[in-house]
Amino acid sequence: MIEIHNVHKSFGDAPILKGVTCTFETGKCNLVLGGSGTGKSVLLKCIVGLLKPDIGSITFDGTIFTNNKVEIRQEIRRQIGMLFQASALFDSMNVFENVEFPLQMLTPGMSREERRDRVEFCLKRVGLENAGPKMPSELSGGMKKRVGIARAIAPNCTYLFCDEPNSGLDPLTSIKIDELIYEITHEYNITTVIITHDMNSVVEIGDHIVFLHKGLKLWDGTKDEILNAQVPELKEFIFSSSLVRAAKRIEQEGGSLEEIRQEPSQDI
Amino acid sequence: MVKVFGQFLLFLQSMFVRSERVKVLWRRTLDEAVNIGIDSVFIVSIVAAFIGAVTCVQIAYNLTNPFIPRSTIGYMVREMTILELAPTITSIVLAGKVGSSIAGGLGTMRITEQIDALEVMGINSTSYLVLPRILGAIITFPLLVILAMVLSILGGYLAGTLSGAMTGQEYIEGIRDTFIPYNIAFALIKSLVFAFLVSAISAYRGFYTEGGALEVGTASTTAVTHSIIAILLADYVLAQTLL
Fold first, then answer.
1. Counting Cβ atoms within 10 Å, is residue B177 exposed (0-12), middle (13-18) or buried (19+)?
2. Which of A183, A206, B73, B129 could hold A223 in an S-S bridge, CB 3.0 to 4.6 Å?
3. ipTM over cut 0.85
């Protein structure tokens, strides 16, 4: 479980996070939802230690991460796997070496054969068992995300962070990536935090959702509760998608998708 | 200016805090040494040979006094090559080639979040990425400077003899005249200092790149410019203090 308590972060005079408090539960896909510029990625960077919060604390399973000793922070970091928005695969390494890299660096006691078995297992788990010799430049966007996930889970991470895992992907590939993250989270009982503004992901895999708006947490709940949330900013965000409006209308009143799609968004 | 220098010192210090394992560093340093050294042999050879040749031809052109022996040309080519041309010009050439490569590579890694990926894994990114580049440069620059010295003197020999400015015997006499071994040591000390300056300044510029592809290009250009200025300043300081 990851606990965020009263986290503030500013860049110069511009406040980005204005006291975010929330909890990300173990064994669940925790989604941080919000529009562009609401502070989602800054929150994620604060959690993984790439940015230091101005005020507030972040706790991983009871161990304070912010302002703790370097050794303790390192120990926590070594349990973190992260899928970056652009995958962040190392250009100079092929797929196999990319997945092997954290094992080489973080588990020096592991033999070469053990590492090879683990890499092959992880690549098979994400459906890329034959992609080992390929270079990142030879992969499609979806394949890069899969390799990123394989690299993140290779050292048996306890916490998995995904920064907009669907960005730049077609809807079908997005769903497959979402499903993969969801399966891995539940299979290995890890704490997964996903930054997204994709409502499909919310509906597909949102075990627990936190809605951020202008640096504040305005709402949290489950995917079953989100369509009935009474927070105006959240409603505006959710129902800006005609598909979601349609789903909501059909659920309440019946009607056809085409008819509802024609309506301007402010009518809802 | 002071702030940037302070940040540069902190950047250098960060390489030694939570440094990576010696085995990893050694392997990475060898990789970087090969990248920097082998890839630069061709350009260093071409530049050195032609500089030696041009130096020889121009000295011969200016040396019109019949009372000065022609072997002086060989002597002057040797002195100029060892003391200045080989270490300084080679380092300036390498600042362009290696410096832009280091800054561009690290800058690209920064904007594509590869450096963030290392940090999230708990790896000291400066120790893993920057220290091997600096060590690789420190290993290879002196070797390239020695190569440049040999080829430059050889270029002078070929140019001098083929143009008829002097005989091979005269050139070799000049080369062997009043040789001071310390000059070689001085050139190698200069090459070590230049290697550190080029690799560290370029790595610093690349490591702190912000923005996109345009900023990576800017970081590379700035790295080369600052490295060359640093080389020239250090060249003067070293000449004043060590000669």
1. middle
2. A206
3. no
